[in-house]
Design goal:
Helix content: under 10%
Shape: elongated
Strand content: over 45%
Radius of gyration: 21 Å
Distance between the termini: 34 Å
Number of strands: 29
């Protein structure tokens, strides 16, 4: 299970989805302790502030909690808590040319908000018309997982933009450009009028997410940070969300739900939607990456060397994690196995041995994805998954893999 308090969903080997809901009150988003699956109907409801979702796998779960922007239907919106509008940011900047081999290990919980590049189709459903059900989205060839980028030649990045075009065109054909995997598609669809007089395509859409996760490292030479150790994936399609823009925000942990066999625990907390600490430039299978100013990190922690694979060994290690308020603490763990490359996010198995962490959380819990692991004075990895049937153990990614991914190549020799 992924360990951040967003549930960013990394495709699990076997899975069952649950949704963590963030209640938005005032200028803060509260991670609630109840669950609700949310989606967005592009024809019925305009985008609101973040709602929350996450994915849990049966055997291994990514420890993140995540939120959706928008509500699935008008009826859901009427019963939902008040939401804060989150303004869309400017497009993400390119990755830096290099990241140093000495970084500052963090372990700090942060809020994360992400806006998609295009609008992701997460499902198809019938439009109930006076003459019976109609399927314009399905019949034109759209599938769950398609990313709609243009309609009638104009770029679309938000649900409101899609909704406005469908309403304007009424039943006239729409030219839809979409991306499916590595393929570019051009499709034709005409909306139909439902029994309430609303024009719809019968497509469920998503354009943004928000939640809480853990930062892994900060490189003072480039200003680059890495977090989570796995990507932010859509809960319905398991697709890596295409990033247009995003940022991290201050967060604090208010309580812990302890994990037990068969019932992974989770961190509960708040993040501040009004203040950005840094901006994201990449959402990848090996983590999310961005840049922020040095003063955000402070000078309390000195940089450490990033361990190469052959420097990581089984045996004692420590993990930095934020399980109380905004305090980062160091806990004892043990690296029990080191694996071949695999998918990159499960490079080693770690076991929590620290009695204080076991007493507080039961081991590894959702919200801890990205917690840095230290051994022999080096940054060796970050926690990514928890074993559902044994929350004292979980998987971790090699820190070297994250740093290489941060620039899409080799690390700088400094």
């Amino acid at each position: 299970m992924a360990l951040s308090q967003f549930q960013f969903v990394f495709p699990p080997p076997q899975g069952a989805g649950i949704t963590r809901v963030f209640l938005v009150r005032g200028t803060q988003t509260r991670i609630g302790s109840f669950y609700l699956r949310q989606g967005v109907n592009n024809m019925e409801q305009k985008k609101k502030g973040p709602g929350v979702f996450g994915l849990a796998a049966l055997a291994v779960v990514i420890c993140l909690s995540l939120s959706l922007t928008g509500d699935r239907a008008r009826a859901v919106a009427a019963a939902a808590p008040a939401a804060v509008e989150v303004p869309r940011q400017t497009a993400a900047q390119p990755a830096p040319a290099a990241v140093g081999r000495r970084v500052i290990p963090l372990g700090k919980a942060v809020g994360i908000k992400l806006f998609s590049d295009g609008v992701l189709g997460v499902g198809l459903s019938p439009v109930e018309t006076e003459g019976g059900p109609s399927y314009p989205g399905r019949d034109c060839g759209l599938k769950a997982g398609d990313v709609i980028t243009h309609i009638n030649g104009g770029e679309v990045d938000t649900i409101e933009e899609v909704q406005a075009l469908v309403s304007q065109q009424e039943g006239e054909p729409l030219t839809i450009q979409a991306v499916r995997g590595q393929r570019q598609l051009q499709l034709k669809a005409a909306a139909v009028e439902n029994s309430q007089g609303i024009w719809q395509l019968g497509v469920w859409l998503r354009d943004s997410m928000a939640g809480i996760g853990t930062m892994t490292f900060y490189d003072p030479s480039s200003g680059v940070f890495g977090a989570l150790g796995h990507g932010i994936n859509d809960v319905d399609t398991a697709m890596l969300m295409p990033l247009e823009s995003g940022s991290i925000m201050p967060a604090s942990v208010s309580e812990v739900k302890k994990g037990a066999s068969g019932a992974p625990g989770e961190l509960h907390g708040q993040f501040d939607l009004t203040r950005d600490l840094g901006t994201l430039y990449a959402n990848t299978n090996l983590g999310i990456f961005g840049q922020m100013p040095r003063e955000t990190v402070g000078n309390a922690v000195e940089p450490v060397e990033v361990a190469a694979r052959d420097q990581v060994k089984t045996g004692p290690a420590t993990v930095l994690s934020n399980i109380r308020g905004d305090e980062v603490e160091e806990f004892a763990v043990r690296i029990t196995h080191i694996y071949p490359e695999g998918d990159g996010t499960r490079s080693m198995m770690v076991e929590v041995t620290d009695p204080d962490l076991l007493a507080a959380t039961g081991g590894i819990v959702q919200g801890m994805s990205g917690s840095p692991i230290l051994q022999d004075g080096r940054l060796v990895g970050a926690v990514t998954h928890v074993l559902v049937n044994d929350p004292t153990r979980g998987y971790a990614i090699l820190a070297e893999n994250m740093l290489k991914q941060a620039v899409g190549g080799d690390l700088a020799a400094k």
